[in-house]
Amino acid sequence: MEILVSAIGQGLLWAPLGIGLYLTFRILNFPDMTVEGTFPLGAAVAVTMISNGVTPFIATLCGMLAGSLAGLVTGLLYTKGKVPILLAGILSMTAIYSINLRIMGQANRSLLDLPTLFSSSLLDFLPKNFPMVLVGLIFITVIVGLTALFLKTELGQAFIATGDNANMSRSLGINTDNMTIMGLMISNALIGLGGALVAQNNGFADVNMGIGTIVVALASIIIGEVVYSDQMTLTERLITVVIGSIIYRFVLVIVLEVGFNADDLKLVSAVILGLALMLPNVGKRLSIKLKKEA
Amino acid sequence: MTTSSLRLENATVVVNQGTSEEKTILDAVNLEVQAGEFVTVLGSNGAGKSTLFNVIAGTLNLTSGKIYLGDTDVTHLKEIERTHILARVFQDPKLGTAPRMTVAENLLMAERRGQKRRLKSRGLTTEKRAEMAQVADKMGNGLAQRLDVATGQLSGGQRQALAFLMATEKRPELLLLDEHTAALDPKTSAQLMALTDEQIKAQQLTAMMITHNLSDALQYGNRLLVMSEGKIAMDVDGTAKQALTLEDMLAFFNRY
Prior knowledge:
heterodimer; A: mainly alpha; two-stranded antiparallel ribbon; 11 helices; 2 strands; 2% strand; B: alpha/beta; Rossmann fold; four-stranded antiparallel beta sheet; 10 helices; 10 strands; ABC_transp_permease (chain A)
């Protein structure tokens, strides 16, 4: 039971990554590697500020802001500097590694005995792991709600159109460069927020905590799509990303129960994502084959 | 001269300047299109038709010369800065619409062509939907019943009809049609061409249309340009255009 609640809580805290990456990977149609730098950046900013006495909520927002700045850099490199998007993301990610070390002044930083979003006295009466679920639920509800609303504004529609058909968008007067930069900023703000939340829950930030996070974020998106393969509205799609994030945590819990150790998790994550990516195509081929034989 | 919709003065485009590959693809073109004219543009491949359109739309910069849209000098304006004045329909049905967005969403977006996109609800209300259904109904190809379908699932004809609607929804001072019926089957192509003509007349639009179809070029529009080697080789309008026959055109083309 405790493990289940923990998996749900973890899934909710990591879900902002999936939502953030959805905006670039699915809507703008490119993989943004900045994620791997932005996640620890949000964590580093939040943890360092809390250590310096800033209230956890403000520190979390600053983690988000830092993330959006990272997105801005990648966006400028890509649109104005004409650097290919994969490379632009890798450049930002690499640069942020040094920035994270500067921010924290060391490779990792603990929040031992310091207040976090999860240690509020209001949450004290809850049993173990439930504060994580509650805080995660509040944040993800706000994020999904605001993102869904945003995508239905004129600006949001112009953003979607940019990813869908950039030529047409320009012929309608949409500044596709600005839309791309804006998308990267929102996306990385959400990922910075995810970093800030996860770090506070774990009780520390580590400069290496970003490794493999793009796989985690992609896994939430793809698992959500595999489980719910029907046509859906964009708002429903965002919710499936959250569900995908929770399912992914369940799978990890099971993997650990089976006897793998924590060092194997990156390998396991990659295998899960690989399978989820292949499943739709392999499934299609299999069903065609079965139909032929029947 | 406030009635002219478009004016080109010595519009010239040279590519690969300063290399052995240097080529003038638009050669000192002077052209004035009056408001209300429907100009068909003919010419063989490489004659400069597309270059002419790209230069007018702003996707290609002039090497020298000037372009005016209405009274505005747009020579140095970027493509997106010209979109409040002009609209385009492309040849490829894939180019004109956003495939994952619905017909209604595409129409809503086109309504704000050239205007700022605000952080404000897109306004897909019941009234708006009814209004769009009415507009789409003019196309007479079932588009009105498919407002909530992603445009990627429409037929090529429906997509091009939608692209045409999107271009004319907010009245453009100049409409550029770049072989917009060429990718369709003959029947659908003829239908869309007739609709295009009907709408241009009904809304008194100023339009330019590139086509490779000689009879379309003769049948439609009230002015005809023929481009050759980056120049305007023939420019007829009014009764002179009406008098032209297919044989005249074939004879003319054979000379070039």
